Every structure is written in structure tokens, then in C-alpha cells.
Amino acid sequence: MNDKKVIFSGVKPSGDLTLGNYLGAIKNWAELQDEYECYYCIVDLHAVTVHQDPKELRKRSLEILAQYIAAGINPDDNTMFMQSHVSAHAELAWVLNCISYMGQLKRMTQFKDKARNNEENLSAGFFTYPALMAADILLYQTDLVPVGDDQKQHLELARDLAERFNSKYSDTFVVPDVYTSKIGSRIMGLQNPNSKMSKSDDNKNDYVLIIESDNETEKKIKKSITDSLNQVKFSDEQPGIKNLITILSKVTGDSTQDIENKYENAGYGKFKSDVAEAVNEELKPIRQRFEELMKNKDYLEQVYLEGAERAETVARKTLRKVYKKVGFIPRKF
Ligand code: AQP
């Protein structure tokens, strides 16, 4: 019997994947895959909480799967699938919506940030998406959820909902723990180092994409906003430089202190150029493998179809339990 602990995590295909997505999440997933039983999902239901061009969404969802594999996640040992292929996600989300409090959802920082400017036009799906995220996680009796720092609050909600359901009915869900890496759990924007790097940012110079040319990456890093202090210090007073040190540290494995020492007498030009080189070095094999994978769509289809089949079996088992506990008349699934 497989007694490995379970990991679930996912990425929203709402844009092309950034260095933030990679360093905050996917790189960690690849590192954890041998130790855990892993479910890595492309959370397309989350993406449509804001409007997506249908053609683009389909294309991007496949590309993201290819990027998971290219980043080293082995499809033979891990379950990778499209969220919309396993309908238990939407079904459990409904039940969890019904035990979620409006007050708690309104306190979610991501909702508050978006609602500040245009609450009237936000979709109800965007408001309740943390309950869907909880469903994603709880369906697989997940022990650990590796995410970036920005998702910690939603994970806390998933834990609350698991505990609430367990105490209202009886023990049903494993209460999951969050996993964030010490360094790189919040990569900031290159143009605005005071807010996180996001794939749907309007300014393309604010983010590095996993899949872009070395040249583009180099240009963006060289153009990144720093300061006039001209010292490579890991300090809150220098958010741009701090962010570049974080990126370099996560990519090379060198400590922030070692990086400070190495660049003590170097100018920002040399430092930025080394950061760009290290990032390109890290992404090079992923970019190459991605190109190869995208030429083999049949293989990608096989991975996501088999993944959905495996996920479905586990997810249905949990959903059956939940439906029974809330009092629905059982049926054959
Ligand atoms: N800047 C970041 N630094 C570290 N981790 C990050 N993640 C996202 N941005 C950073 C982590 O990547 C995983 C997938 O995120 P997501 O795509 O599901 O949603 P998100 O957090 O909303 O990512 P974006 O890029 O900011 O998307 P948009 O712009 O569409 O909202 C998560 O583990 C996340 O923490």
C-alpha cells in the first residue's frame, strides 16, 4: 500500500507562467515529488472567475501542463490533470460554499484588493473561489499544499472549512498544512517591487516568463527598478535589489549573505547581468523541453486524460462520503 503523504497544488491558466509562479510554486513541486504522492492540477475553473478568451484559455492550459513536465515533474509518478475534467471539484465547492461565511470571504486580501476599485463588476465566482480552492485540496485528503506566500490566507480558509465540516458532521477531511519555501515564496514585480509579480499584470516588463527568449529575460532584468544607493544589500529599504537577491538565491542556492558578500564592491550593472544569466541558465532546459513537448500533443493529451482518471477515483470517494454525511440519498456514481 502507498503510505506516502499527499500533496495537492495548482496554477491558474489566466496568463503565461511567470518566474514568480516557478520559484514560488513549481520549482518546489518538482523537489517534493519523490517524497509525496502528488496531484498537480491546472485550475481552469479558477481562471474563468475573470473573463478569458476561450481559444487562449485552451492553448494556455495545455502549455502549462507542458511547463509542469518540462520543469521536471514526472507524469509517471505524479497525477497531472485539468480541474474541469474532474467534476467533483465543482460539486464539493458547492457544499463548502454552503458552510462558508460571507464575512470570512470578504476578509480575503485578494478579494479586498480587487473589490477596492470595482466590486460591482467582480464575478460571484471570484468572491467564492477560496471555497473552490478548499474543495480542490480537501478532495484528495491532502496533507501538504506547496504555494507562494499570497495563497496562505486561502489555505487558512481551507483548514477552517475542513475543521468546520469535520465538527459539524464527523471526521471526513484531513486538515492540510501549508508549505512555503524560506526564500522565493513572494517574488516581486520587476517594475514595481512593492507588489508581487503577477502573470496578469498589464506591464509586460514587470514579469519574466518561464517561456520567453533569453534576450527578453535579460532585457527585463536589466531594466528592473532599483535605487540610487548602489549597494547590493538584502534590505527592506531597497525592495528592487532585495527582490533580485531573492531570485538569485532561489536559483543558485547561494545564501543572501553570500550574495551580499560577493557583490560588495560591484555595481548594479554587473549584478543585474549575473542575475539575468543565472535565471536564463535555470530556465534553459525547461524552455528546450517545453518546445519538444509542444510538438507532441498526443502525449500531453495522454498525460492529462490518465491524470483525470486517477484523480477522479480519489475525488469521487471523498465526495461520496461528503454527500452521505450531509444527508443526500446515495446513488451509484
Ligand atoms: N510572485 C509570486 N511569488 C511567489 N509565488 C507566486 N505565485 C504566484 N505569484 C507568485 C504562486 O504560484 C502558484 C500559482 O498561482 P496562481 O496562478 O494559481 O494564482 P496567483 O497567485 O493569483 O498568481 P498570479 O500570477 O498573480 O495570477 P493572476 O495575475 O492571474 O492573479 C501559487 O502557489 C501562488 O502562490
Strand and helix map with partners:
Elements: E1 6-11, H1 19-32, E2 37-42, H2 44-47, H3 54-70, E3 79-82, H4 88-97, H5 102-106, H6 109-118, H7 124-138, E4 144-146, H8 152-168, E5 177-179, H9 214-222, H10 239-252, H11 256-262, H12 268-294, H13 297-326
Parallel strand pairs: 1-2, 2-3, 4-5
Helix pairs in contact: 3-12, 4-7, 4-13, 7-8, 9-12, 10-12
Bound molecules: adenosine-5'-tetraphosphate (AQP).
**The top level CATH class name of the largest domain:** Alpha Beta
- Helix fraction bin: 40-55%
Strand content: 5-15%
Q: What is the CATH topology of the largest domain?
A: Rossmann fold
From the 3D coordinates, which CATH architecture of the largest domain would you assign?
A: 3-Layer(aba) Sandwich
Query: Overall 3D geometry?
Result: globular
What's the story with the biggest beta sheet? 3 strands, parallel
Number of helical regions: 13
Span between N and C termini?
25 Å
SSE series: EHEHHEHHHHEHEHHHHH
Main β-sheet, spatial strand arrangement:
1-2-3
What structural class is derived from the secondary structure elements? Answer: mainly alpha
- Give the CATH H-level superfamily of the largest domain: HUPs
Mean pLDDT: 96
- How many domains? The number is 2
Total number of strands: 5
Q: Spell out which ligands are present.
A: adenosine-5'-tetraphosphate
* Uncertain parts: none
Rg calc = 21 Å
